[in-house]
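debug: dumping io for the single-chain case to check the tokenizer round-trip. Nothing else runs in this session.
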Amino acid sequence: APRLPAAALLGVAAGVALYHASFGFTGAWRRLQRERRGAGVRAQALLLAVLCTASFPLIASGQTGAWVFPVGLASVLGAAMFGLGMQLGGGCGSGTLFTIGGGSTRMALTLFGFLMGSLAWTVSAGWWADWPSLGAVSIMRHWGAPAAWAATLLALGAVVWASRRIEIRAHGAVEINGVDPAGSRLFAGPWSLTVGALILAAVGVGCFLALGRPWGVTAAYPLWGAKLAEAVGAPVGQWAYWSGGRLEQSIFADATSVMNFGIMLGALAASGAAGRFAPTLRLGFRDAWTAILGGLLMGYGARLAHGCNIGGLIGGVASGSLHGWSWLLFGALGSVAGVWARQRLGMDPPPPPRAAR
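debug: decoded output
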């Protein structure tokens, strides 16, 4: 199908940009909390602003689909679980994939936990159906595309303003969002966060145009987990969720899966071009169990929250859906708890002392 080559190419582009720009949600959110530095968060706001500027007119004109999912107790719990898990696991939905492609063996354990958490959700999916919910709310449907776009940019501007204020209060000035051009090369990197944000926004637009829907990552993981469990003898085909031939689908016929493979290949190529591909099998016990636990929380949480930081947050906001903003709020709260847990577990050094004012 034409969608599959497009998905693969979009994935490769995303993998290269994610790696060369070191663009991730986990580290950026942790850095804002621990160090009061917000360049990564502002780059995420830029990504969303550019993407929404393209996606809102496309959705309003009917040229592409959108993801507008319910906001309820289950979804906010899932977002908080994901935020906690991404700090313990050390990566988010896209971050797990590109760091694996870059040679991180610890993130392979996180991905394994991710798959198992997603698979566990398929066993209990029906249990969450009757939890209280506000239903699906589209701000574009209620306000119209122009007003929804203006409100979205205003909200993103508030995020930028808040991150700058936090940083200036702590350090007296805002850190430059970029890298030394003299040390940056096109194929070997590194790239600035701004360049990474713009390329990833283009990838997001490409998903709307080529795939007819937002960029997603974790929707593929229940199938991956089921295939893995079936390979070791688990009777997955007998579970209610997998009735009706769902398990017979090839992961290579799924656009989300193909794009995920592309992300890993793109990051692998980028790390090789930069001369930084150096995997190691030396992992301590704490690193191993926190990686798996973080992955389990992310896998289960992503299904409850209608996606990860890519499908749930970026896909939701770019679709004009209230669930995207709900994901941001409760995912951030979970991340705060995760940063605290990392500190208690000795995964991070003590935060730097704040300057006297």
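debug: round-trip ok. The CA atoms of residues 18 and 137 lie 31 Å apart.
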